[in-house]
């Protein structure tokens, strides 16, 4: 066996080992991709119903928020009416009370002057 034949044999063995290693790597890659594909299918199967439930829940929340908005609008209206009524009662009551206090003060002074005489 000559040196050329030995180096050719070594090259052939190296090429065969490299080919076997490449086939093994490709096999591992195919297995990993299969696992990843099954995982993604499981995620899709689980995610679609969750998204449907989430949409249903958000629709319900929006309906409840619309109700709360209506309630708050009604409360605001009632509060404004109560405020207006309070202002009106205050105006009606305050004016006669101020007049009565003024008359009472004037009468008190007059009574005080009359008493001194």
Strand content: under 5%
Sheet having the most strands: none
End-to-end CA span: 158 Å
Radius of gyration: 48 Å
Overall pLDDT confidence: 88
Helices and strands, in order, run as H
Bulk shape: rod-shaped
What does this 3D model show about the protein?
With 117 residues, the protein is an all-alpha fold. The chain has one domain (1-82). It is 97% helix and 0% strand. The protein has one helix and no strands. The protein has one helix spanning 3-116. The radius of gyration is 48 Å and the shape is rod-shaped. The relative contact order is 0.03.
Entry keywords:
mainly alpha; about 95% helix; about 120 residues; 1 helix
Task: Summarize this entry quickly.
This protein has 117 residues and is mainly alpha-helical.
Task: Please outline the helices and strands.
Blueprint: H1 3-116
């Amino acid at each position: 066996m000559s040196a050329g034949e030995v180096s050719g044999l070594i090259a052939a063995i190296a090429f065969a080992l490299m080919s076997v290693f490449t086939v093994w790597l490709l096999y591992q890659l195919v297995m990993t991709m299969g696992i990843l594909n099954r995982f993604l299918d499981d995620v899709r199967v689980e995610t679609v119903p969750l998204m449907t439930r989430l949409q249903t829940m958000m629709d319900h929340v929006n309906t409840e928020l619309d109700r709360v908005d209506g309630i708050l609008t009604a409360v605001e209206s009632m509060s404004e009416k109560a405020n207006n009524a309070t202002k009106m009662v205050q105006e009606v009551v305050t004016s006669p009370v101020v007049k009565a206090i003024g008359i009472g003060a004037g009468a008190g002074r007059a009574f005080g002057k009359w008493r001194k005489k």
